Predict the 3D structure of the following.
Amino acid sequence: MNTSPSITRRNLLLASTAALLPSCTPTREYSPDLAAHPSEIKDYPPNLKITRIQSFNLPLKRPKFIGRNSQRNNHGDHTVEYMVRIHTNAGIDGLGFSKAPRENWTKLIGKNPFHFYQQQKNGFVSPIGTHTMALWDLAGKALNKPVYQLLGGKGTKLVPVYDGSIYFSEMVPLYAQQGLDRFKVEIDQGRAAGHRAFKIKIGRGYKWMEKNAGYQMDLAVLKTIRRHAGPKIKLGVDANNGYDLEQTKRLLNDIPDFNFEFMEEMFPESIKQYRELKVFMTERNHKTLIADGESRQRPDDLKPFIDAKAIDIFQGDMRNFGFEGILTEAQLCKAAGLRVAPHNWGSLFGFYMQLHVGRAINNFYMAEHDPLTSDLLIADGYNIKDGKCTVPDAPGFGLTLDETRFSNILKPIFDLQI
Ligand SMILES: [Mg+2]
């Protein structure tokens, strides 16, 4: 094809898209045809009714103690998932993460969940906001489809994942004696769990150490991990905004052959600074992707960065944005040739949510895995191998609770009944 240097693939895409759009369409609009939309749902059970809603905290464990990042103190070896379970008159139930308060859920009692579904809004619009995971689970079970199919079903069969659990382990008293060898142990643990990509926290000099000493420790950790992991393992970094632009350039200069897969939150999002970083990377032939956006509250907050293509990988938070917000973000990104990788730390159900998004959309990057488990949960069909995760075809999410232990152990926070 004869293309002048000024005609990029992006321009060609926009030109061909514009030809399909009505002339009154603003240039910022994207073509829905380019992006995954959730399914149109017409044939749902007309008499389905929510009869009971239970909220509870599900205890979760990690296989290791997770230390600090540049901003926050220890993350520990356990947490809880805020859960909701919805029962219906049809004998099916929906299970999912939710932090929506009791008074909001009360407004769904006695209602048909499908009455809240709006395809053009990418999902459920109801008093519970974006905490709709249990509604999607219920919808999947009612329609006998996995959630990823309801979400659009345009993603890959196996979903790329990465281990996001490499924190400042040398500062954890439990592991301090191991020194830098601790990182080799953790990489080996991640590899044994099926991972082939890792995210490494950096930014020790932001608040925990003197700035240059912290930077030198970051360098030592990165060199240790790359040497141990070998060249084929994908390694990204996340500074939790603990670096600045100059320090980021210094890092790229100091270990030019590290081959950073991505750099996340090196400093607070700035179109100007990210553009400068991109020029710097291009000049030095770095293929590193810029990832950011986890602290933004809504897809609209990311639009300026999407328009400017200042970020390559957009990381709206999985649970905060919900499926509805992540699909909207993905549609905006898709039109600009960009990808999404929802932020997800401290949540097991957020991991399952990401996997269904990964199977639903065709501009998904990787799912972030916080290695949490629950022995009260049966999650058949989700298996990580060679850096990718399978997703079951069971209706909904295919996640079930151990019923006996559930009723004996878990105390409801609220229990609403019709
Ligand atoms: Mg992050």
User: Anything to note?
Assistant: The radius of gyration is 22 Å. The first strand starts at residue 50 and ends at 66.
